[in-house]
From TrEMBL:
This protein's name: DNA-binding transcriptional LysR family regulator
GO molecular function annotation: DNA-binding transcription factor activity; transcription cis-regulatory region binding
Residue ranges constituting the HTH lysR-type domain according to the UniProt record: 1-58
Keyword flag RNA-binding: no
UniProt xrefs under CDD domains: PBP2_LTTR_substrate (cd05466)
Annotated family: Belongs to the LysR transcriptional regulatory family.
């Protein structure tokens, strides 16, 4: 059993389908099936069960795929340690990024970083901030870019702070929001809590949600068609010249804001690519904020 088998097993775990796994591994389906049979003979145990819902690991197979996952992680960490001992900044940098930051902030940052450090390969995983935080806790990524209040005791740096805005196709007033149709989109629990707490502090009447969509972009398109208003992060409204936007304020006249953080483990700073990216973020943010 070697590193190719580790990748084979983890790919099967993710895809639960031999055909899709073979496509990802760039091998034929018969070759993959043959290797599966070899592994089962090697371990003298059935590792997989196939049924209509797909390919599933037996309890014995689960133990072996966990071993494969741990070996892949150990191999990656060993490579990173070796690469960090060299002068040139290179290696694979694994980023976990909240979906909104990935859409509106990350592309230009990555382009600028790779221009400066062409020897670095970047892997990006996106999701809700709560999911990205779990990736960091589990050691699946080097750096997390998360939004909202995050209790992280290791390396942490404030990337940005933005206002929350009520956006509408037509002019509105904040005072009249309880009487207007609001378009809600599925978002991270921390942002939902932030908006809900502001609403409870500001109004006595419940929110009037007439539409609920699965993502921010769909919500924004609904607003642009005049189907209701939405409460959105300022970042996603910078280029929307046809919408009326209104900052939210608490009763003490402080604006409702949401922070974006860059976090990593202290030990990750020993890797040259991680340290370079962390420092790059600070310099990049300083330049763009001028």
């Amino acid at each position: 059993m070697n590193d190719k088998d580790w990748v084979l097993l983890t790919t099967l775990k993710e895809e639960k389908n031999i055909t899709r796994a073979a496509e990802r591994l760039f091998i034929s389906q018969p070759a993959l099936t043959y290797r599966i049979h070899q592994l089962e003979r090697f371990f003298q145990s059935q590792l997989f069960i196939r049924n209509r819902s797909g390919l599933h690991f037996t309890p014995q197979g689960e133990i072996i795929v966990e071993y494969a996952q741990s070996m892949i992680k150990q191999l990656e960490e060993t490579k990173e340690k070796i690469q960090s001992m060299e002068v040139a900044v290179k290696g694979t940098l694994k980023l976990g990024v909240s979906s909104i930051a990935a859409r509106y902030m990350l592309p230009e940052m990555i382009r600028s970083f790779l221009n400066q450090y062409p020897g670095v390969d970047i892997n990006v995983i996106t999701g809700f901030s709560s999911e990205v935080e779990q990736f960091l806790v589990d050691g699946d990524i080097h750096i997390a870019i998360m939004r909202g209040d995050r209790h992280w005791d290791e390396r942490k740096w404030l990337l940005s702070e933005e206002s929350l805005l009520a956006a509408s196709k037509e002019p509105i007033t904040i005072e009249n929001l309880p009487n207007l149709a609001r378009i809600y989109y599925k978002t991270d629990s921390s942002l939902k809590a932030l908006v809900d707490n502001w609403w409870k502090e500001t109004f006595q009447k419940p929110v009037k949600i007439t539409m609920a969509v699965d993502n921010l972009e769909t919500c924004k398109e609904m607003v642009k068609k005049g189907l209701g208003y939405a409460i959105l992060p300022g970042t996603c409204l910078n280029d929307e010249k046809d919408l009326y936007t209104y900052p939210l304020y608490y009763s003490d006249d402080h604006p409702v804001k949401r922070k974006t953080w860059v976090c990593c483990r202290n030990s990750s700073m020993n890797f040259a690519a991680v340290a370079a990216f962390f420092d790059f973020f600070k310099a990049y943010n300083h330049q763009t904020s001028k």
